[in-house]
Amino acid sequence: MKSLTTKVGFIIILFAAIVRVPASAQSGNPLQFLSEVSQSSQANPAFHNKTEKLVIGLPLLSGATAHWNANFSSDYLFTENFEYSFDHFYTSLGEPGDAKANATLPLVYLSHRNDKRTLSFSLSERVLLWGNFDHEFLKFIDQGLLPYYGKDEEFGPISFKTQFFRELSFAYAKQVTKKLSIGIRPKVLFGRFFYDIENLNVVVQTDEDRQVLQVIPKGDYRISGPIDVKYDPVIGKTSIKTDFTAGDYFLKFKNMGAGIDLGFTYQPNKQTTLAVAIADIGFTTINDKAFNNTFVGSIDYTRLYQSSDTAAAYYFEPRAALEALTDSLPYKTIAEAFTQRQYELLPVRLNLMATHHLNDKMKLNFSDNLTYYNGEVSNYLAAYFNVLLGTRFELSSGLNLYNLGQVMPGFACSYTARGVQLYLATNNILRLVQPSKAKNLNLSFGVNLLFSTEPN
């Protein structure tokens, strides 16, 4: 545990952002076009449950989604022989790395429509990830320390932020008139883990008088979770220990936040429906078991190594070298507990949608999904064609335009039987079958159980 926080700061930046995680946001996902699926209301709380049954989502499955956007894919890190290579990553990337992801794991989902009203309840785990890094740092890891002796270099900035929290939400949709429906989804958020390192720089310089190579991290980071962080000024070391309680797993009331989704649908005529929604207007809080850590001093190396040539002298495997570096960092930090509560905004999403029914079986869908988070804006434009095949199978296919620069073909489908419903949706079908090459991917899937509430 001694190097937990610093490994998050370095290793996760380079590796965890590459790993696919189940995610929550509906941005650009064609699930919103599957009107027969109750979870389409995640895009707009004014959407009604059209099954006319009680919908119970299977825990951990129904509503799991994955959203990933980056300027690199996981195959950048591996060669054709499936061996990891920081040099291959560095060469393939060729520019600063950037990645965004968000994640949800559903625990409970219930939805039921009664006449002109739909009530829904959900409990889920959510993860938000955002990061960028100087790709020259990859070269530093690949080369090792030896080539930098006698030089002064600086790598950075490196930034990474993650939020992990539990979301408890209640949704209410009402058909106000024949043409207008409104919806609201208030949320209570319970913070589980938070990590934020912003603009970290790593300086590598040579002390000729002492004949040592110094690695100097500059910056600080915030962390909150089931841990206890203490700084001992006598030995100059920050210790990190687990401090896990039952409240850390269930509902973390000391790190509570709140949010709300709002939406409406309007039918100007029988064929056309317009929908507008704004989601995740809210915040999480950081208060309990929260610490600010500042890097101080330098890590001095007298025994240098190289990591690029396995056959040459002084070779040290890059992954082991990186781990040794992160193990040294706790000795170079000073930790202080938070003195007051801090607030973190959620990624706000605006969803604009238009649907035009060609007939009883076919319709056209158009949407624009904008997301604002951490000072950055991303946008998905989508056009999809839906068709009902029989009475149970719905298929949607179309194109997505990400940030006006990348076109991706997507599809969604659902099968509704008497007592069960299956669905799958992705905005990038090509990368669904080749996930190692995915730079942009949004995946949703689920299994719903359907129960009739009408008397026999």
Describe the fold and architecture.
The chain is mainly beta and 456 residues long. The chain has a single domain (4-451), classed as Porin. The chain has helices spanning 4-14, 86-93, 136-143, 246-249, 318-328, 429-432; strands spanning 54-57, 64-70, 97-114, 117-133, 153-175, 180-207, 212-218, 220-224, 227-232, 237-242, 256-266, 272-286, 290-295, 299-301, 333-337, 342-345, 348-357, 362-373, 376-389, 393-402, 406-416, 420-426, 440-451. It has a 14-stranded antiparallel β-barrel. Strands 9-10 form a two-stranded antiparallel sheet. A hairpin with a 4-residue loop joins strand 17 (348-357) and strand 18 (362-373). Helix 1 (4-14) runs antiparallel to helix 5 (318-328) and helix 2 packs antiparallel against helix 3 (136-143). Residues 1-26 have low confidence and may be disordered. Residues 45-427 form the DUF5723 domain. Keywords: Signal. It comes from Draconibacterium sediminis.
